[in-house]
Write a structure and sequence with these properties.
Elements: E1 40-45, H1 51-62, E2 66-70, E3 86-89, H2 95-107, E4 112-116, H3 120-123, H4 128-136, H5 145-161, E5 166-181, E6 187-196, E7 208-212, E8 217-223, E9 232-234, H6 238-248, H7 257-264, H8 271-283, E10 290-292, E11 299-301, H9 302-325
Parallel strand pairs: 1-5, 1-7, 2-3, 2-4, 4-5
Antiparallel strand pairs: 5-6, 7-8, 8-9, 10-11
Helix pairs in contact: 1-6, 2-5, 4-5, 7-9, 8-9
C-alpha cells in the first residue's frame, strides 16, 4: 500500500480537497489544540543492553493488551512466563510484510505493538537494503533501487506512526569499543552503542527515543514530552511508562484511524461524509494508516478504504438513478 489513494476530480469523491473559494483545505489555519496521542517509542542500544526486556516491561505497564512482532528468532517468547502478550515471529523482513503485520495487529485491537527489532527491516533478508540492491541489477543504485523503494519505506514508516495504539520499536546500535578506566583505576575495553541500524534521520519519526547501555541505563536523547526530556533512567519500567501516559493523555480526545474506518463502513454513510472524512484524515496525516479490507481480507490503507467505499456508493446511486429514468 502506498498510503496515497487517488482522489481529485476523476474520483467518485470529486475535487474534495478545495473549499468553494478554490483554496486548498490544507492551507487553512486553525486554532492549535493539544490532543491526546499515542506513544511512539524507539529503544536503541548494542547487544545485551536489554532492549527487548525493556520494551516488554514498558508495554505491560502501559496497561493495554499488546503484541510483539519478533524478528529475533522468537526470543521475546523467552519472557512469556513474566509477561502476557501475543507473538508473531517473522523471518523475512520486507517492509511490505511489516505493513501487513501492522494492519493485522490493528484488526486484532492490540493497544500496544512492539517491533523487535526494527533494524531487520533495514538490513535483514528482504529488507530495504537488499531490495534496493535487487532492483539495481548493476545500474545506478540511486536512480533505480532507491527510487522504487523510497515510497515503500515511507509507507512502512507511515504505518508505524499512524497505528491507533502505542508503538515501541527496538533498534540495534552499531557497536564499537573504547578503552575506559574502571572503578579500580585500570584500563579496560568497554562496548559502546553508536548510530542505530536504520535509515538516516529515522529518529524524527518517533516522539521518544531512549538509548540503552550495557548496564541497562537509559538516556532519553529525544522527547516531545517535557517530563521526560534529558532524563537518565536506570532499568526503565513502570515509572517510565507512567510518565509516558501522563504526557500522551494530556489533551482533548481526537479521532484515530479506526474511528474514520468505522464511520466509513457504516451502512448510512453518505458521499458528502466520505469527502469530509478524506479531507479530515489527510489533515491529520492518517490516509496511510494500516487497516484491513473486510471484503478482501487483505491489508489496505484508510485513504484507499474510504475511496473504495465512495466508489461503491456512487455506483449504487447511479444504478438507482438509471432505474428511475428507465
Amino acid at each position: 500500500p502506498t498510503g496515497r489513494p487517488t482522489t481529485g476530480a476523476a474520483t467518485p469523491l470529486g475535487n474534495h480537497h478545495r473549499e468553494k473559494t478554490g483554496v486548498p483545505v490544507q492551507f487553512e489555519f486553525v486554532d492549535a489544540t493539544k490532543e491526546k496521542t499515542k506513544a511512539r517509542l524507539a529503544l536503541t542500544g548494542p547487544s545485551g543492553a536489554g532492549k527487548t526486556y525493556t520494551a516488554l516491561r514498558v508495554a505491560a505497564a502501559l496497561g493495554e493488551p499488546f503484541a510483539v512482532i519478533d524478528t529475533e528468532n522468537g526470543s521475546a517468547a523467552e519472557y512469556s512466563t513474566e509477561f502476557t502478550f501475543k507473538h508473531l515471529v517473522m523471518r523475512h523482513y520486507a517492509p511490505q510484510e511489516l505493513i501487513s503485520a501492522i494492519a493485522a495487529a490493528n484488526q486484532a485491537n492490540f493497544g500496544t505493538l512492539i517491533i523487535d527489532t526494527f533494524s531487520k527491516f533495514w538490513t535483514g533478508a528482504g529488507g530495504m537494503l537488499e531490495q534496493v540492491d535487487d532492483r539495481t541489477r548493476g545500474g545506478n543504485k540511486f536512480a533505480t533501487g532507491w527510487r522504487d523503494m523510497r515510497p515503500v519505506e515511507n509507507a512502512m514508516l507511515e504505518a508505524i506512526t499512524t497505528f491507533p495504539g502505542h508503538v515501541i520499536v527496538t533498534m540495534r546500535s552499531k557497536t564499537a569499543y573504547e578503552v575506559q578506566t574502571n572503578t579500580k583505576g585500570k584500563k579496560e575495553p568497554v562496548k559502546i552503542g553508536l548510530k542505530p541500524e536504520q535509515r538516516e534521520g529515522v529518529e524524527y519519526e518517533f516522539s521518544i527515543i531512549g538509548d540503552l547501555d550495557r548496564d541497562h541505563l537509559m538516556t532519553i536523547s529525544k522527547a516531545r514530552a517535557h517530563n521526560l526530556d534529558g532524563r537518565v533512567i536506570d532499568k526503565p519500567g513502570e515509572e517510565f511508562a507512567a510518565a509516558i501516559l501522563e504526557w500522551v493523555n494530556d489533551g482533548v480526545e481526537s479521532p484515530d484511524a479506526n474511528a474514520f474506518r468505522d464511520r466509513a463502513l457504516a451502512p448510512d454513510v453518505t458521499l458528502a461524509e466520505l469527502r469530509d472524512m478524506l479531507t479530515e484524515a489527510r489533515r491529520r496525516g492518517l490516509l496511510g494508516a494500516p487497516v484491513m479490507d473486510a471484503d478482501s481480507g487483505q491489508p489496505s490503507t484508510l485513504g484507499d478504504l474510504i475511496t473504495k467505499v465512495g466508489t461503491q456508493l456512487k455506483g449504487v446511486e447511479e444504478k438507482g438513478s438509471g432505474a428511475l429514468a428507465a
